[in-house]
Write a structure and sequence with these properties.
Layout (H helix, E strand, L loop, with lengths): L1 E6 L4 H12 L3 E6 L3 H11 L3 E4 L8 H4 L4 E5 L5 E2 L3 H7 L4 E8 L9 E8 L6 H26 L17 E2 L5 H4 L8 H9 L7 E5 L2 E6 L2 E3 L9 E5 L2 E5 L4 E4 L1 E4 L11 E2 H5 L29 E6 L2 E6 L5 E2 L1 H15 L5 E8 L5 E2 L1 H6 L3 H20 L5 E7 L2 E2 H8 L3 E5 L3 E3 L13 H9 L1 H10 L3 E2 H7 L4 E3 L6 H14 L3 H18 L2 H16 L5 H10 L9 H4 L18
Helix pairs in contact: 1-5, 9-11, 11-18, 13-14
């Protein structure tokens, strides 16, 4: 079928639906919801069989939904209505939630139901993590079922009120900041955490701190540090620790409140955002550092952790939004080298839920006094990390992607001997949309895996790739079909089998010999020098598009039109959606 996606942003769920529908042979195009008239023109131009809205903040005009079946993906169970569904799910402590695919109608979220799916709500994850994982899995299940039902031509969607036993309509209002505000003098730690996790990525929790107003992003429990409620107690790896009435919480990121008429603000590591305002606080290392080994039963926060199980070492890292600053790359490199000093046969890099990595930290770069120089230092720090992985020849290294990876983060994964990927992850192995050539030794690792022609196609088309498609083309080695919560244990089982497999030691020897042959043919330093020469030219050219693209990205500037590669783009194997006159139907 010809399917037109309509979305307010090409976010993680939209990318997944876009790529998964294309994998199934549908011709898929996308139109950003930038106004009624552009949307009408897109519908006229493409004449789609079906319109699907994976993430939409505005209503589809009546003249469109009355002439075309428009399926709206609502991140709530059948009967749930309103713009803040997931916020309410976390606020009310729901343990199970759902996603409903309904037909657009005159009543917001009130249309007939085409499909629905349930999903768990883990108590310790933030809203954005929940959205990208459990909700995304349920949404895809429901979308695929709804598309199948539509294609059958026989299915009749059911009104919400009659969609099942016990279904009740519940209209929930917008979740205001007044409901998020933390009362540091009375809110216990668990309440503070629930409020922070319910707004971790967007919109944040508005709060007063050091006589200014900030949005707090993310929250993690701390069992050891104590102080006067609301007081800043310590820093750790860019985060700040703040006391509650019965404990403390770590807050990784802050965003200043935008002043009237002022420029848009953006998230930064909390200590960096506070800058000179930050009082003299101790930098408190996580228990077990420098490798970040977890103490039994102790709740605290560290963005890098290491543990061992037999002959397998697990080096996990969780950086907000998947972005890796210069400082984060250097800390991870230190931890990696220490992990490589341990007597293990297999080293797993990653392995936790949600983002693997999205490459260099554009927000930190944008905030730097000299963004060009910070870009240069950040990309070199990424390259140092990737080089360390590529030159590890005394054990097998596995990249385990529990969530999405993009740009340099995807190339970091490819530096490992094997890439294991959760079935729900989406990969974006390209740099072009940020105006960059790219580094992280991608000109060595990507063609080595998928071939020169496929590498050129992936980087030129700049479209998302599903885990299944990545496995088909050799981008990843193993796809693990698991829930987000079970991914870590599934990886551990696979890694244990790999470490004890009869051919593993032979594989390590062959890997070392292959690295030596490749080095003799073309040294790694040559790939790095060639890539960095082009990156340096871009970074230090004030007129390069990268600078404007970066500024727009971090400030979430609304685009003026839908990018051409999304309007006509689709997954490999399907034809672009360009309209009846093109003969593509």
């Amino acid at each position: 079928m010809d399917i037109l996606l309509v979305a307010s942003a090409f976010n993680s769920l939209t990318q997944r639906v876009f790529a998964e529908l294309g994998d199934r042979g549908h011709r898929v195009g996308l139109e950003l919801a930038l106004g009624d008239d552009p949307l009408r023109e897109a519908v006229r131009r493409t004449a789609p069989d079906l319109i699907v809205a994976p993430m939409l903040r505005t209503a589809i005009p009546p003249d469109i939904w009355s002439a075309h079946v428009c399926l709206i993906v609502h991140p709530g169970p059948v009967g749930d209505r309103g713009p803040s569904s997931l916020d309410w799910a976390i606020h009310t402590g729901a343990t199970e939630w759902g996603v409903t695919v309904l037909q657009a109608s005159g009543e917001m979220d009130g249309g007939a139901v085409w499909a629905s799916a349930r999903c768990p709500v883990p108590a310790t994850v933030g809203k954005s993590d929940l959205y990208r994982n459990e909700v995304s899995d349920a949404a895809l299940e429901a979308v695929l079922l709804a598309v199948e039902r539509f294609a059958s031509g026989t299915y009749v969607p059911r009104p919400q009120e009659t969609s099942g036993p016990g279904t009740e309509v519940c209209v929930r209002p917008y979740f205001e900041q007044s409901l998020r505000r933390v009362d540091w003098a009375s809110d216990p730690t668990e309440t503070v955490l629930r409020k922070l996790r319910g707004a971790d990525s967007q919109p944040g929790v508005l709060d007063g701190l050091l006589e200014e107003e900030w949005y707090l992003h993310g929250g993690h429990a701390e069992d050891s540090l104590r102080g006067r409620p609301g007081e800043l107690l310590a820093t750790r790896s860019g985060a700040v620790c703040r006391a509650t009435v019965d404990g403390a919480v770590w807050i990784p990121e802050l965003r200043p409140r935008r002043r009237a008429g002022g420029p848009a603000t953006f998230k930064l590591p909390a200590a960096l955002a506070l800058g000179d305002r930050l009082p003299a606080l101790p930098e408190v290392a996580a228990p077990g550092e420098p490798l970040g080994e977890r103490s039994a039963g102790l709740r605290t926060w560290s963005d890098i952790r290491y543990h061992e199980d037999g002959q397998v070492g697990f080096l996990s890292f969780t950086f907000p939004g998947g972005a890796m600053s210069t400082e984060q790359c250097r800390r991870l490199l230190t931890a990696y080298r220490l992990a490589c000093a341990r007597p293990t046969t297999v080293l797993v890099l990653g392995g936790s839920r949600d983002f693997f990595s999205n490459g260099i930290h554009l927000n930190v770069i944008e905030a730097a006094a000299d963004p060009a120089q910070e870009s240069w230092e950040n990309i070199n720090a990424m390259d140092d990390l990737v080089e360390a992985v590529l030159t590890t020849t005394d054990r097998l290294v596995v990249s385990a992607l529990g969530g999405n990876a993009a740009a340099g983060g995807a190339m970091l994964a490819l530096a490992a001997d094997q890439v294991w990927c959760r079935s729900g992850a989406v990969l974006n192995p390209h740099y072009r949309l940020m105006g960059l050539y790219g580094s992280e030794y991608w000109t060595y690792t990507l063609p080595r895996r998928v071939g020169t022609e496929q590498a050129e196609r992936l980087t030129r088309r700049a479209l998302p790739v599903t885990a299944a498609r990545a496995r088909e083309i050799g981008l990843v080695d193993v796809v693990i079909d698991s829930t987000p919560q079970d991914f870590g244990s599934a990886v551990a089982r696979h890694a244990a089998r790999l470490a004890s497999a009869p051919g593993t030691q032979q594989g390590i020897s062959e890997k070392k010999a292959a690295r030596e042959r490749d080095e003799a043919l073309t040294p790694l330093s040559t790939y790095r020098e060639r890539e960095l020469a082009r990156m340096r030219a871009t970074f230090f050219d004030p007129g390069a598009p990268y600078h404007a693209l970066r500024a727009a990205f971090v400030r979430k500037v609304k685009p003026s039109s839908t990018p051409d590669h999304l309007r006509s783009g689709t997954s490999p194997g399907a034809q672009p959606l360009t309209g009846h006159s093109s003969g593509s139907l």
